[in-house]
Amino acid sequence: MSRKQLYGKAYDLEGPDDARELYGAWAADYDVEMVEDHGYRAPEMLASLVDERIGDKTSWIVDVGCGTGLVGYHLGRRGFRHVDGVDLVQEMLDQAAAKDCYTRLVRGNLLERIPINENRYDVAVSAGTFTHRHVGPDGLDEVVRVVRPGGKALILCNGEAYAADGYEAKIEDLKRLGLVDVTESSDVGTILDNGIRGQLLVLDIHI
Length: 207
Known about the structure:
The chain is an alpha/beta fold. The chain has helices at residues 16-37, 42-53, 70-77, 90-98, 140-146, 159-164, 167-176; strands at residues 61-64, 83-87, 104-107, 121-127, 147-158, 180-190, 197-205. Helix 1 packs parallel to helix 4 and helix 2 (42-53) crosses helix 3 (70-77). The model has no long low-confidence stretch (mean pLDDT 90).
């Protein structure tokens, strides 16, 4: 049986219900299609960046929008052992669980309150969630909420979405409220073979 080819539908979502339907159907084939067919490098790139900028392998990390667990897998290969994952879609979480690289997996919607306490983590990471027609910039509020003061968030955002979808304005709002400082915002090169680039945000969390 040929596997599903669903990447082309990923930027046509109209809300959480669309996301659940698409990613629920795609979960079993996602890794092969994205990594092998489309050269998706963001999860491995992000794990390498976390290793460079955090280093402390005892840090408690939450992988926001963990999907099938590609970021967690690459963090585990680098020696990080305390990684939890959050995603909207149960079928994606099931794939992540099979990789055996997460301490805990939680189903939640970043545009609502996810079932995680405030200040729970040292570090939040995310690759692939902050892109066109997915969560959008407002999902950063939950990222900030679950990281302790003095912690960090490393977000690998779709570069086109970062420029076009209001991320800079959202970050400025978070800075104005005293919630974050931006210690890095940089183009990290292509994250897909079709030329899509990534924008890395490193945020220091204050409250």
